[in-house]
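Chapter summary example.
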Amino acid sequence: MTYCVGMMLDRGLVFMSDTRTNAGLDNISTFCKMSTWEAAGERALTLLSSGNLATTQAVVSLLDERTKSHEERTSTLLGVPSMFQAASLVAETLCEVIARHSAEGQQADSTFGATLILGGQIAGGPPRLFLIYPEGNFIEASRDTPFFQIGETKYGRPILVRAFAPSMSFETAMKLLLVSFDSTVKSNLTVGAPFDYHLYETDTFEEGPRGRIELDDPYFQKIAQGWGDALKDALHSLPDFQLPAADTD
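The structure predicted for these 249 residues follows.
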């Protein structure tokens, strides 16, 4: 399983993904699920992936190869004129890979499925964030829906819904995401560290701060312990439930 999040802030875009993949409890591996493309001063794009690993790796490889080929440049991620067309290109590539590798029938199609988050900015337009489905359709983030999750989303969602604010800083967004990822890791063994992150600042048109946070990272450990303690303190601060009086009749 996977857990990835893309956020749209006033300052820019924030991405984070776990790295665990598994094909059974005794076959767990680590793979990066984040890819970036950049033409400095003109565009920067980030892709997060969830689903069949062979499918997602094939999609990324095809997108990479086509940026380096002699194909018409406008049909590659480094040449399309808008983020909408970039999302369309990624969606078409995903459908192409699934069709190539899947057998006939809906069950086989779903086995090779994948879901993607694409975000970034191309000169002439604002930063944009898209959620791309295995069927090839996609939706765009907005003020009403300012972040997307893919993979094992349910455990980390409550903290995002309650605490997210578009005005928050990159530093606060990272703290919020690490709480969300910690909650997910503690609830589902198929999601695990290390966590990859990328921060893109609006109108820079180049890759921003990017790194990897290990499970034993001192800051992550402080966040995990502090969040657990804060939840306990919050619970104890709430009024106790009053049991109804026993019926003496």
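To summarize the output: The chain has a mean pLDDT of 92.
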